[in-house]
Amino acid sequence: MWISFSVRYLVNVEDLNNVESAGNYVRHRRAPIVFKEKDVYTVSYVPAVSGEMIAHGYQMNLVELALQRNLPVDDLAKQGILIKRGADDKVHENTKCKDIDDASEYEMCVISEDVVEDVAGFMNPNKLVKRVSNIAFSYMVPAIDAVKASTISSQFHVRYANKELMDKYKNENLQSLYNIETASASYVLTGYLNISGVGRTQNYPIKEVNDKKNRERTALDALMITITQFLFGAKLTRFKPIVDIEAIFVSSSEKPFNLPPVTGDIKKYIELVNSTAESFANMLKVNKPVIKYYLKEEKGNVNTPVDAFMVM
User: Phi and psi for 40 in degrees, rounded to 5?
Assistant: First the structure.
């Protein structure tokens, strides 16, 4: 089973992904977006949240669920340190996989010890073992039809300290002024989860873990929590954004079928997704992908007429 998702959020005042500070100024991540306007392609630099940031949030949600369900989690991952297996496994002190040379056996050993590396992959060049991630996230960027409505602005802050403290520590920097950039936009996020690949080796001969079904369910639940509860990003304790889910589309298919970003007229988007799914099924001679969606105040599936949505 292959799960694809496309989500559109209206996000106001977020600092989910800043990239650097220059003096007392902290910059928000930006990314170039190319869009067509009056038959001319235009480049615009817009606020963005990296897929790496979102994947980190997903993996930490996966850790929490895995621990609740008695699935194996690496000791470092339990601490929020997502260091995957590499050329040297010394940081993974309690691993039993170091002396295994066979690629399939080594991969099986690693995923048996850690659900995170099972779902999100790893690579060890010394063992000639590569496990491709079963989960993928795009950058979160403004929707093409909302690029001009996205914005970044700096917010002024003061770190306060009284005169007694400054005199005591002889440090005038205890009280300082600083600016942090925040962004607001109608963001889109896409990605996929290869359910069938969870709990199964990618190096031959193919083997499966005994708790594969439990792992599949946990990987899917972690994804649901991540995208519906917006559990990812930095500075949530003081810059938790105001989020409104505008649309979520989710597809389930036998073969890899990925949904496009939710942009433009929603009726045309549904028609595009429906026709693409039909063509995909006919070309590969498989069942048509099952696609469900939620729109603000509406829900249904792509075969439901647009004027017959059920109101929540």
Answer: -125, 135
Pairwise CA distance, residues 266 & 246, whole Å: 11
Distance CA 277, CA 275 (A): 5
As a whole number of angstroms, the distance between CA 305 and CA 82 comes to: 45
> How confident is the model over 197-240, as pLDDT tens digits?
999 999 999 999 999 999 999 999 999 999 999 999 999 998 99
Residue 180 near residue 26 (C-beta atoms within 8 A): yes
Residue 117 has pLDDT above 80, yes or no: yes
Distance separating alpha carbons of residues 310 and 312, to the nearest angstrom: 6
List the chain domain ranges. 2-148+183-311
User: For the chain, what is the radius of gyration of the CA atoms?
Assistant: 23
My answer on whether omega of the bond before 47 falls inside 30° of 0, hence cis, is no
3-state secondary structure the chain: CEEEEEEEEEEEEECCCEEEEECCEEEECEEEEEEEECCEEEEEEEECECHHHHHHHHHHHHHHHHHHCCCCCCHHHHCCCCCCCCCCCCCCCCCCCCCCCCHHHHHHHHHHHCHHHHHHCEEECCCCEEECCCEEECCEEECHHHHHHCEEEEEEEEECCCHHHHHHHCCHHHCEEEEEEEEEEEEEEEEEEEHHHCCECCCCCCCECCCHHHHHHHHHHHHHHHHHCCCCCCCHHHHCCEEEEEEEEEEEECCCCCCCCCCCCHHHHHHHHHHHHHHHHHHHCCCCCEEEEEECCEEEECCCCHHHCEEC
Alpha carbon 23 to chain centroid, angstroms: 30
> How far, in Å, CA of 250 to CA of 302, rounded?
10
Collect all residues with Cβ–Cβ distance below 8 Å to 155 and sequence separation of at least 6.
Answer: 179, 180, 181, 182
AA letter at 137: F
**Rounded Cα–Cα distance for residues 246 and 217 (Å):** 26
What integer pLDDT is reported at residue 116 of this predicted model?
Answer: 97
